[in-house]
Write a structure and sequence with these properties.
Structural class: alpha+beta
Radius of gyration: 15 Å
Largest sheet: 5 strands, mixed
CATH architecture: Roll
Number of strands: 5
Strand content: 35-45%
CATH topology: Nuclear Transport Factor 2, Chain: A
Shape: globular
Order of helices and strands: HEHEEEEH
Number of helices: 3
Strand order of the largest sheet: 1-5-4-3-2
Number of domains: 1
Helix content: 25-40%
CATH class: Alpha Beta
Length: 139
């Protein structure tokens, strides 16, 4: 289980934080399944890579931090926060040059040494409020 947790942390550092998107194949099977894909995300590892490229293009300075991790059996749950500045289009929203801070959790299920499926739950509503797409609630 510790190795699985370390694998997730390595993925976050090498692929998400350093932007080495093509290295994602070291961490995920080609036929991996994203249980909650981003809108427009295609299937498998190629779909994941394309989604990550889009995210990195929109937020080129994005940085992910694991705040808490729990591993049990073949699963690792990571509570995270990521920050970045929107410099490109994201989900149809043109660049705003707005800095954002987004929280979420991801559950990764391993088969052997790689992730077979993943389920990310992210505060997309909060992100859209930060980008000015959705108005904040009235006080």
């Amino acid at each position: 289980m510790q190795n699985n947790s370390n694998t997730v942390r390595r993925f976050i550092e090498e692929v998400l934080n350093q932007g080495r998107i093509d290295a994602a194949g070291q961490f995920f099977w080609d036929d991996m399944v994203e249980q909650v894909p981003l809108p427009g995300q295609g299937p498998g590892l190629d779909g994941l890579k394309n989604a990550l490229r889009g995210l990195r293009t929109a937020f080129p300075d994005m940085h992910w931090t694991v705040q808490e991790q729990v591993a049990e059996g073949d699963k690792v749950l990571s509570r995270f926060e990521w920050t970045g500045t929107q410099r490109g289009t994201f989900l149809g929203v043109p660049a705003t040059d707005t800095p954002v801070r987004v929280w979420g959790m991801v559950i990764d299920r391993f088969e052997g040494t790689k992730i077979k499926d993943t389920r990310i739950i992210m505060d997309t509503l909060g992100l859209m409020m930060q980008l000015g797409v959705v108005p904040p609630p009235k006080a």
